[in-house]
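Field reference: sequence -> structure
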Amino acid sequence: MKNILLPTDFSDNSLNAIRYAIQLFENDQCTFHLFNAYTPVVYDLTYVLLSPAQFGLRDPIRAASQEGLDKLTTELKEEFGTNPNHKFETIARFETLIAGIKELIVERNIDLVVMGTKGATGAKKILFGSNTVQVFREIKFPVLAIPSNFDYVVPKEILFPTDLEVQFSTAQLQVLKAIAKLHSSRINALHVSTGYGLSDEQDRNKTMLPTFFERMAYEFHDVEDMEIPAAINKFQEEHDIDMLVMVNNKHSFFENLFFKDTINQIGFYLNIPFLVIPSKQQ
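Structure field:
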């Protein structure tokens, strides 16, 4: 891990995700890129085409964004002290969140995006904020989403559900492996049996999967036929899982799980960090 992108709107929710990232990579040399996307409430074509500086004016909205980032950086350094492994950079940009993330992934050679996601009211339910859902859909890049109010714990047990329909690659699993190696984590691959047996492709993928995690703690779990959310919840209750990892593969159970119904209707109980890996990176 070298470059971690941390989008922030200065909310407690985004601050919690930033704190998680700093602790997760405490012993890893990396740069944290704090990014705030701002848009003036009212702007016209002149504002878009010509910056306020060209009129000899100070841009108060950009200034407020940069001041917020500078203040946040100071507070983080006060809270966590000086870590020689860590460097902070700030980006205040007149941009939409999605476009800004896409641009910065390329510009800053980003390895991982870490952001917060708001929990819904009501027992054991998670409501992914609209920004998080949009990022999952449009950013073909590893994204780690941290639930509101989640207190950092070392991710010793990582749950990795798979339908074995994806032919994995070393590059694709790089972020997962880096996190697991950093914390000596155990990766628990979970497959829900349908009762029909594995196809030849699934069987090949199952055989190949452990080769990606050589010299790492790895276990494969096959569970009885049940709904994917129920299987994840049941495993999480029985094994004290610290992080959930899924591949966002088009037409896979990930897409069915999160995007077929409105996000509010999904009965998926998620209260741990959630790493989403794209099937192919942008």
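Note: DSSP finds nine helices and ten strands in the chain.
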